[in-house]
C-alpha cells in the first residue's frame, strides 16, 4: 500500500477589517482559512512582533473550524496599532493583509475636573437647546 500526501500552500478567504472600539471594549480580528494541506497554523502579529498568547492576558485566540479569531479582551490605547495573521504549513506560508486597531479613549470626569481647575485652559462649550425643553 502506497500513501501519497498532497501538500497545498495556505489560502485565506476575505481580508482582515480595520477595527474601532472604545477603551475597555473587546476587539476582534477574524481570518478565514480557505485552503492549505496540511491545515495551516496561524500566528498573529502586532507591528511586526509576534503575539505570544502564553505570556499575556491581553489576547486570546479562538478557533472555530476554519475561522481563527484574535481577541483583544479589554482594549487599551497601547493595544492600538497594525495587526496581521501569518498562516504556515509544510508547503509554505502566507501573510494576511494588515488591519488597524483604533482604541478611542474614554473621557472621564476626573480628567474633566483637572481641566476645569487649570486656569491656563479655556474651555468652550456648545449647547443645542430644543424649544420644547422645559427647565422648570
Overall geometric form: elongated
Q: How many structural units, i.e. domains?
A: 1
Question: How many strands?
Answer: 10
Structural class by helix and strand composition: mainly beta
The CATH first-level class comes to Mainly Beta
Largest sheet: 6 strands, mixed
Question: Can you walk me through this structure?
Answer:
The protein is mostly beta strands and 136 residues long. The chain has a single domain, classed as Immunoglobulin-like, CATH 2.60.40.10. The chain has one helix at residues 109-117, and strands at 8-13, 19-22, 27-37, 41-46, 49-50, 59-64, 67-72, 81-89, 92-95, 99-104. The strands form two sheets. Strands 2, 4, 5, 8, 9 and 10 form a six-stranded mixed sheet that branches. The longest helix has 9 residues, at 109-117. The model has no long low-confidence stretch (mean pLDDT 85).
Q: Topology of this protein?
A:
Elements: E1 8-13, E2 19-22, E3 27-37, E4 41-46, E5 49-50, E6 59-64, E7 67-72, E8 81-89, E9 92-95, E10 99-104, H1 109-117
List key phrases describing it.
44% strand; mainly beta; Immunoglobulin-like; 136 residues; 6-stranded mixed beta sheet; single chain
In summary, what is this structure?
With 136 residues, the protein is mainly β.
Amino acid at each position: 500500500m502506497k500513501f501519497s500526501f498532497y501538500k497545498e500552500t495556505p489560502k485565506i478567504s476575505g481580508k482582515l477589517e480595520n477595527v474601532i472600539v472604545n477603551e475597555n471594549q473587546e476587539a476582534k480580528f477574524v481570518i478565514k482559512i480557505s485552503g492549505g494541506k496540511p491545515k495551516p497554523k496561524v500566528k498573529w502579529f502586532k507591528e511586526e512582533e509576534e503575539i505570544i498568547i502564553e505570556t499575556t492576558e491581553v489576547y486570546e485566540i479562538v478557533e472555530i473550524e476554519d475561522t481563527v479569531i484574535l481577541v483583544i479582551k479589554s482594549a487599551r490605547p497601547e493595544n492600538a496599532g497594525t495587526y496581521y495573521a501569518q498562516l504556515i504549513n509544510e508547503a509554505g506560508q502566507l501573510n494576511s493583509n494588515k488591519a488597524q486597531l483604533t482604541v478611542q479613549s474614554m473621557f472621564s470626569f476626573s480628567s474633566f475636573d483637572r481641566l476645569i481647575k487649570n486656569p491656563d485652559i479655556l474651555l468652550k462649550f456648545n449647547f443645542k437647546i430644543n424649544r420644547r425643553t422645559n427647565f422648570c
